[in-house]
Design goal:
With 452 residues, the protein is mainly alpha-helical. Helix content is 76%, strand content 0%. The protein contains 18 helices and no strands. The structure holds phenylalanine. Phenylalanine (PHE) binds next to α1, α2, α10 and α14.
């Protein structure tokens, strides 16, 4: 059977309510929760970061997620097309916001494919029983050796091809089916790992670090990091959720879906923290190890645990599934753009985005080895892309999307898209989009740029 489409617009659609949640949560839950959140929390004071992050999700994240969903469903196009369709006549400038989003998605794919590739390597090492070789005294050399060599490039290519294979099959048969399969499995693995972690001797210290807020660690940069983390983790500000919103059936409840997605996403980040910090503390390791945290610290912990090989396989499998469903959604931003903007067929669009991702991913992978000395603003290509996208492009995109939804689109369209929902919830979302989100995002970014 063919993929399902909308009767009036022939837009592809997700086929079930479960599929909508699985795909959107699949996009949100990814390396951002399991790889990025713990190291950001580790370097920004644990509990303080968690609270700031939750505030950002509630007051800024959820409203912008709703905005993206409704722009997509009302416009039934990719981010550029939908913004253009909903903007008042002759104000094509809004399309530019869409272009910025597509650019941002393409930049994220590059480093996201690389880290997803690391996951495959660690899964492979665990499955072949070699976890001892990437742990203990070897762990640093093993990580550096692997990331600077050709294996890292190889796994990046595998990830990109795998993603291409899934998105090629379409919205319902590819994206929805893959998410329906992987997301429930991911939750089962997560719960098992949380239970295991809570039984460790150092669990209390780890939990204290994650949940106890030390407000002396609170600074302006904590807010930028927490906001950047909220945007990155919710996949918001670059059109991913607009594209997924354009695949929503017309009876999907937008505020409810956004709230479920944001709660599950935050829950997974907290669970990842609960898995990682007790282990870090019970084995006397450093919680602020940065991006290497889970790749250097966890194998070491697994190698000293009973049944460590199995736990290690479970963990990296979980990470792989989480990252695949996210990179699928990133690719879909580019693919939907090619299809809607240039009227290409799906096949040509998928091939083009896959080819781009191969080149960009490989360049990024090489920035740990042969291209390590090529510094831009003092950063390697990998670090620069991560920094610029989550600290600038996504917040700027989020700010403009909230202005668009709050001030530019016809108010009736907004109310219609957000209903049915309690009146209070609709009014609160509109209020936040108009007055709070743009100002808060601007202040946080300006503060960090100019340090006032
Ligand atoms: N939200 C994903 C994660 O947490 C990353 C992502 C960002 C996916 C932006 C799509 C768009 O890993």
């Amino acid at each position: 059977m063919a993929n399902r489409t909308d009767k009036h617009t022939s837009r592809p659609l997700f086929s079930t309510r479960f599929g909508v949640i699985a795909a959107t949560v699949g996009s949100a839950v990814g390396l951002g929760n399991i790889w990025r959140f713990p190291y950001e929390a580790g370097s920004n004071g644990g509990g303080t970061f968690l609270i700031t992050n939750i505030l950002c999700v509630l007051l800024i994240g959820i409203p912008v997620v709703c905005a993206e969903f409704m722009i997509g469903r009302a416009g039934r196009k990719d981010i550029c097309g939908s913004m253009q369709a909903l903007a008042p006549k002759n104000s094509g400038a809004w399309k530019a916001v869409g272009f910025l989003g597509v650019l941002c998605a393409l930049l994220i794919i590059a480093f996201y494919a690389v880290v997803s590739g690391w996951t495959l390597e660690y899964l492979f090492q665990s499955a072949t029983g070699k976890i001892g070789e990437i742990a203990g005294a070897n762990r640093h050399a093993a990580f550096e050796g692997f990331t600077s060599g050709w294996r890292c490039v190889f796994w990046t290519v595998v990830i990109v091809l795998l993603t291409g294979g899934i998105v090629y099959r379409g919205v319902e048969k590819g994206i929805e089916k893959a998410s329906n399969l992987m997301m429930p499995l991911l939750f089962v693995l997560l719960v098992a790992m949380v239970v295991n972690s809570l039984l460790m001797p150092g669990a209390a210290d780890g939990l204290r670090f994650l949940f106890y807020p030390d407000f002396s660690k609170l600074g302006a940069s904590t807010f930028l990091s927490a906001l950047g983390q909220a945007f990155f983790s919710l996949s918001v500000g670059l059109g991913t959720l607009t594209v997924y919103g354009s695949y929503f059936p017309s009876d999907t409840r937008i505020i409810k879906s956004a709230s479920i997605m944001a709660s599950l996403d935050t829950m997974v980040a907290v669970m990842a923290g609960v898995i990682i910090f007790p282990a870090v503390f019970s084995f006397g390791m450093e919680p602020a190890a940065g991006p290497k945290l889970i790749f250097e610290v966890l194998p070491d912990i697994f190698s000293r645990m009973t049944g460590g090989t199995l736990w290690s396989i479970a963990f990296f499998l979980l990470l792989l599934m989480a990252s695949l469903t996210s990179i699928i959604s990133l690719s879909e931003v580019g693919i939907a753009f090619c299809i809607d903007h240039w009227k290409w067929g799906r096949k040509k669009a998928v091939l083009t985005v896959t080819l781009y991702s191969l080149v960009a991913g490989i360049l990024c992978a090489l920035s740990f080895g042969p291209l390590a000395d090529m510094k831009i603003f003092g950063m390697t290509l990998f670090d620069l892309l991560d920094f610029v996208t989550s600290n600038f492009l996504m917040p700027i995109g989020g700010m403009l999307i909230s202005v668009f939804a709050g001030w530019i689109i016809n108010r009736q369209t907004v109310r219609k898209e957000l209903s049915p929902a309690p009146r209070l919830a609709v009014s609160a979302i509109i209020f936040l989009l108009r007055y709070i989100c743009p100002v808060a995002i601007f202040l946080v970014m300006a503060n960090n740029l100019f340090h006032f």
